[in-house]
Amino acid sequence: MVAFLTRMPVGWPGAYNRTHDATVEPTPLAPGGPAPTAYGVALTMTPTGAALPAAAASIYGMYVRPYPTNSNQDPLGTDTPPTPANAGNVDVMVRGYLVVKLLAGTAVKGAPYEFSVTGGNAGGVAAVGSGGATPIACPGRSYFMGPADANGMVEIAFNI
């Protein structure tokens, strides 16, 4: 049995909580385009209505973990998102609360965040001014819901 001496973990990247407040849409991944490599990252929409990792100045939604999931190719504790070739539709949250991995900086309740649009961290979340992300305006009201846990996971409000 695990003993939590200070705080329980926030959750897993891409897990949306407070489901009554979430708006999640089925969206195809862009064929031939780069695929998101992790859950809990920002996505951009192409003109044809397909999703790509954030690489532009407009964020459409966040890549969320589907529920329920079952994968027989991954070892326990590993979550490999689908590729455009085998994905069909993926889940994109356009409004709600989500657990993400904090790339850089310190998360403070109510403070805004920004997204990375470069390299292997495309779509990741960082504190504003931390140098860990390219500043992109978040849609609606988007802010941290509290500090990160010991694993660097933090809950965010997205487009509320």
Structural account:
With 160 residues, the protein is mostly beta strands. The protein has one domain (16-158). Helix content is 2%, strand content 28%. Strands 1, 2, 3, 4, 5, 6, 9 and 10 form an eight-stranded antiparallel sheet that branches. Strands 7-8 form a two-stranded antiparallel sheet. A hairpin with an 8-residue loop joins β9 and β10. The longest helix is centred in the middle third of the chain and has 4 residues, at 84-87. The chain is globular, with a radius of gyration of 15 Å.
Q: What are the main properties of this structure?
A:
mainly beta; 28% strand; two-stranded antiparallel ribbon; 10 strands
Spell out the blueprint of helices and strands.
Blueprint: E1 16-17, E2 23-28, E3 42-45, E4 51-53, E5 61-63, H1 84-87, E6 89-101, E7 113-115, E8 125-127, E9 143-144, E10 153-158
Antiparallel strand pairs: 1-6, 2-6, 3-4, 3-5, 5-6, 6-10, 7-8, 9-10
How many beta-strand segments? Answer: 10
Largest sheet: 8 strands, antiparallel
Strand content: 25-35%
**What's the number of structural domains?**
1
Helix-strand string: EEEEEHEEEEE
Find the structural class using helix and strand composition: mainly beta
Mean pLDDT: 80
Multimer state: single chain
Shape: globular
What is the terminal-to-terminal distance? 37 Å
